[in-house]
Amino acid sequence: MLASCSRSAPQAQVSHTPSAPPTVVTFPGATPDPTSTPDPSHVFVIVLENRSADQVSGSGYIAQLAQQYGVATNYHGVYHPSLPNYLAMTSGSTWGIGDDGWHNLPAGGLGTQLTSAGIDWRAYMEGMNNGCYRNGNGYALKHNPFAYYGGTCPSQVVPFTQFASDMSGAIPRFVWITPDLCHDGHDCGNSTVNAWLSQTVPTILASDAWQDNGVLFITWDEGEDNANSVLTLVIHHDPLHHQSTVAYDHYSLLATIEDSLGVDRLGAAAQATPMTDLMAAVPPAPLRNKT
Questions:
Q1: Which of 53, 71, 126, 265 sits at 20 to 30 Å (Cα–Cα) from 250?
Q2: 130 burial class (0-12, 13-18, 19+ CB within 10 angstroms)?
Q3: Which residue ranges make up each domain of the chain?
Q4: Which of 289, 251, 261 is nearest to 275 (CA)?
Q5: Largest CA distance in the chain
Q6: 28-279, which class in CATH?
């Protein structure tokens, strides 16, 4: 039933010639992690579309997750429209881009960083069925940031149809999920987003990868209010704090991911505040001697 909600994007082959050169022409450098934190075994990320925090905070399954896990209540997108936010989440820079067009950026970004560090990862794109650079079937290139770095699509970017089988096997340490244009809320309403999340999130939470100290981040690319506020959920076992009013943004998310996986921070993530309060877990109860 959910599949029937998907709306196909126009079939258009994307050229590898940028429509306009990006303002930033060198890849943001990596800065050593200034803190040392325990590494989650696995990190999952789901990115949704075009809702301000107050438009989704009390909505169905999203509200259930917010009540049980961690919520960043003062989290903001970094720009408009979609693409600059996706680039910020995966490279620490918007590259001076203010549109959703094709830009052939220098090689790098989070995916390349993880590969170089020997950390396995995979990005699942729902609706992608005819290559990384062809829109259609609900898949939109602008929501696949990994395809922009170096003008080639990494082999780790795969259709979402592989997700279920992968989750029952060897799960990569970093998992990114881009729903299609209906399930991410771009073309459909909150009820459809909630229904999709209620099917997808339990699969993640039931996995050994999440059960063994894993974390799932759910965020939106941009808000529709003047503050560009978005809801961001931090989902892991036994959260010590269920809400944070600290000012966070997509650079904070990247910093938190990179700190969690033990790699250097890219670009503006180096100066960002990581979400350490929402990553904290309730300490286990001390063992008592039997009398």
A1: 126
A2: middle
A3: 28-279
A4: 251
A5: 75
A6: alpha beta
Rounded to whole angstroms, the Cα distance separating 150 from 160 reads 23
pTM of the entire predicted model: 0.87
236 Cβ contact list (under 8 Å, min separation 6): 40, 69, 70, 210, 213, 214, 215, 216, 279, 281
- Percent of the chain exceeding pLDDT 90 equals 82
Q: What is the pLDDT of residues 40-77, one digit of tens each?
A: 789 999 999 999 999 999 999 999 999 999 999 999 99
Q: How far is CA 139 from CA 170, 210, 216, in A?
A: 25, 26, 22
Identify the bridge partners of residue 122 per DSSP, sorted by sequence position: 175
CB-based contact 185:48 (threshold 8 Å): yes
| Residue pLDDT, tens place only, 148-171 | 999 999 999 999 999 999 999 999
CB 69 within 8 A of CB 234: yes
